[in-house]
Design brief:
Layout: H1 2-10, E1 15-20, H2 26-29, H3 42-61, E2 69-78, E3 84-92, H4 101-107, H5 119-128, E4 139-140, E5 143-144, E6 157-158, E7 164-165, E8 175-176, E9 182-183, H6 193-199, E10 203-207, H7 214-221, E11 231-233, E12 236-238, H8 241-247, H9 253-260
Antiparallel strand pairs: 1-3, 1-10, 2-3, 4-5, 6-7, 8-9, 11-12
Helix pairs in contact: 3-9
Organism: Panagrolaimus sp. PS1159
Protein name: Helitron helicase-like domain-containing protein
Length: 266
């Protein structure tokens, strides 16, 4: 309900963006000591990701990359392997809302670029924006929880459930991974090509086109920290909120450095 108060004040969000740290960013790699890996320098990972996250939010909110920004909210989370990522919800002013497929296609792509025309973009899409092959990490009851592979689709359409179906034409452009897995447009995660070129990391950009998706998205980005404990006494689950926060907390080195440095988590 607190999240919906934001919606009542500023309107529903228009974009949902997820940005994940790339441990091979040159700002990280070039500052490692001989023999070190990014995993040895969680402080460096935290500082560089904050710099990149701030730059992304500045592009959106101050420089108006998607148009005039009315409001935004974000949260920082940390994967089990320690890498930080940001979930960002963006609300645009009325004239800049993405109400048509043509406007959506201007900013968001779910396709493999032509490797001859756009070699760098093609390289980054293959490196950062491919889902698959599916396995235990994403499958539930034998099906991908992220709904990959999607169906081929010649043009972008807006669905009733609040999520657009992005254009994924069967244009013959494919990539074969070293494992033998063949990638085509059905496996491409929606992204903004210019932001992918700018940040060189996984940066998923999706349109929020219905109020139905809003509660889910706010719940998703504020779902809380990872935990890994449960206590059962005499057949009943015993839950102490304070004890749970202190004792069952899963915190990696990058998150610890993030907090020590005093960086905001939302």
């Amino acid at each position: 309900q607190d999240a919906m108060a934001i919606v009542r004040r500023f309107g529903k969000p228009d974009l949902f963006i997820t940005m994940t740290c790339n441990p091979n960013w040159k700002e990280i790699v070039e500052n490692l000591l001989p023999g070190q890996t990014p995993a040895d320098r969680p402080d460096l990972v935290a500082r560089v990701f904050k710099m990149k996250k701030d730059h992304l939010i500045d592009l959106i909110t101050k420089q108006g990359y998607f148009g005039k920004c009315k409001a935004h909210v974000y949260t920082i989370e940390f994967q089990k392997r320690g890498l930080p990522h940001a979930h960002i919800l963006v609300t645009l002013e009325g004239d800049y809302k993405m109400r048509t497929a043509e406007v959506i296609d201007r900013y968001i792509s779910a396709q493999l670029p032509d490797p001859e025309l756009y070699p760098r973009l093609h390289e980054l899409v293959v490196k950062h924006m491919i889902h698959g092959p599916c396995g235990p990490r994403c499958e539930k009851d034998g099906k991908c929880s992220k709904h990959f592979p999607h169906d081929f689709q010649e043009e972008t359409t807006l669905d009733e459930d609040g999520y657009p179906s992005y254009a994924r034409p069967n244009n013959g452009i494919t990539v074969t991974k070293s494992s033998g897995f063949v990638v085509d447009n059905r496996y491409v995660v929606p992204h903004c090509p210019n932001l992918l070129l700018e940040f060189n990391c996984h940066i998923n950009v999706e349109v929020v086109s219905s109020i139905k998706a809003v509660k889910y998205l706010y719940k998703y980005i504020f779902k809380g920290h990872d935990s890994a404990a449960m206590k059962i006494v005499d057949g009943a689950v015993v839950y102490d909120e304070c004890e749970s926060f202190l004792d069952s907390r899963y915190m990696g080195a990058a998150e610890a450095c993030w907090r020590i440095l005093g960086y905001e988590l939302h």
